[in-house]
Amino acid sequence: MTLAVRVIPCLDVDAGRVVKGVRFENLRDAGDPIELARRYSELGADEVTFLDVTASSSERETTYDMVSQCAETVFIPLTVGGGVRSADDVDRLLRAGADKVGVNTAAVARPELITEIAERFGSQVLVLSLDARRVPADQPATASRFEVTTHGGRRGTGIDAIEWIREAAERGAGEILLNSVDADGTHEGFDLELIRAARAAVDVPLIASGGAGQLEHFAPAVHAGADAVLAASVFHFGTFTIAEVKDALAADGVTVR
User: Fold this and answer.
1) Is residue 24 very low, low, confident or very high in pLDDT (cuts 50, 70, 90)?
2) Half-sphere exposure for 6 (CA within 13 Å, toward CB)
3) Which of 34, 109, 181, 248 has the highest Cβ tally under 10 A?
4) Catalytic residue selected from 89, 131, 160, 184
5) Distance of CA 185 to the CA centre of its chain
6) Which candidate, 105, 76, 79, 75, places its Cα nearest to that of 90?
7) Is residue 12 within 8 Å of residue 18, measured between CB atoms?
C-alpha cells in the first residue's frame, strides 16, 4: 500500500515570532506563529512543525504556552522541537498539546535520550530532527561526507549523518526530519543525494527539509525517498500555497492527502 505524502509547513520561532533566513543566518520576521498555524491548518496542511530555532543555542526551554496556544488553534498533528533535553520535557510538551516531539542537540550529546523517550512514550511520538551538512573540504570527511550539526546548524560534530540516522532508528526514533543545512533557505531544491542516502539506511519515515523554492522541487524529493516534504519561507511569504504543492505532486504521480 502506498501511503499519501504529507505536506508540512514549518514554523521556525525565535523570541515568539516566526523567522526565516538562509542557512540559519540573516533571519527575517515572517509573522505570528499562532496565526500562521491556524491559517495553514485551514489551507490544507497535513501537519505543522514548530521549531524553537534558538532554544538549544541559548539554552532556553521551549515556550510551552505558545505550544498550548498552537494546539488549541490547530486541529492537525503538531510536531514541536527545540530545547528538548529530557523525557520530562517531552512529557510537558505532550501535555501542552504536541502530538510529536523533535530532538536534536541533546540526543547527539547523549544518544540514550532517544531510547528513554521511545520506551516511555512510544516511537510514534519521537522525531529525530537532524541538521546535516556536507563536510567542508578542509576538514576530515565522514563516511558519507555528510556531518551532523547542532545548535541550529552552528556547530559541526564530526559525526557521520547517515550513521547517526541509522543509530537513532535502532534506538527507537519513529521519524526523521532531515534538514539540509547547505540547502536551507536557498530555494535551489532539496538535497536529493542526502535524501537517497538516508532512505538507503533506514525504513522509518523521512521528512525532507531545506531548499524548496519551486513547485517542481517537491516531487523529486519524494522520488528520492521522502515520505513527507517540509517548507517554510515559500509558504510564509506567499510564493505558492499548500494546495499548489499538492497539485504539483499529484501531477507527477505522487499520492497526496
Assistant:
1) very low
2) 22
3) 181
4) 131
5) 13
6) 79
7) yes
